[in-house]
Design a protein that fits this description.
Length: 141
């Protein structure tokens, strides 16, 4: 990565896309890795709000490229792979339209980035248990 990532920088990038009254709960940096083709990896600032999962695609040098969103009510399935605090943790989101996002939250010096995957997963799990969301949970995170 050619830029110095900070929580503040990621939050500022995502905050531009917040809707009125929407609250950013958790945010971090994730990679969607391409198999055997590192140059095809996609980098994202990922934010979870009380309404949406926001994916702000950035270049390896921090240039903003594209904004994607998945309404929480449009998430069909999710999974979490806890790999420990020193290596990447993975959050898998499958949207109702079949889109699959395997988000790898990797360690970044000075940030507690891998735990963001678990925090997002736990927030969504609490919303499911409270009856506010209907999302299938694959395995147990």
């Amino acid at each position: 990565m050619g830029i110095r990532l900070t929580k503040k920088k990621m939050r500022q990038g995502l905050a531009v896309h917040l809707e009125g009254g929407e609250e950013l709960k958790y945010w971090g940096y994730a990679v969607i890795a391409a198999d055997f083709a590192l140059w095809k990896n996609r980098f994202f600032y990922v934010g979870l709000t009380d309404r949406r999962l926001m994916l702000l695609r950035v270049s390896a040098f921090g240039k903003l490229k594209e904004f994607l969103e998945i309404r929480l009510t449009d998430i069909a399935e999710m999974a979490h792979s806890p790999l420990g605090s020193l290596i990447a943790q993975v959050l898998v989101i499958i949207a109702g339209d079949g889109g699959k996002y395997t988000l790898q939250f990797q360690p970044i010096i000075g940030l507690e980035n891998p735990q963001v995957a678990k925090e997002m997963y736990d927030y969504l799990l609490a919303e499911i248990k409270a009856g506010r969301l209907d999302i299938a949970v694959a395995g147990e995170g």
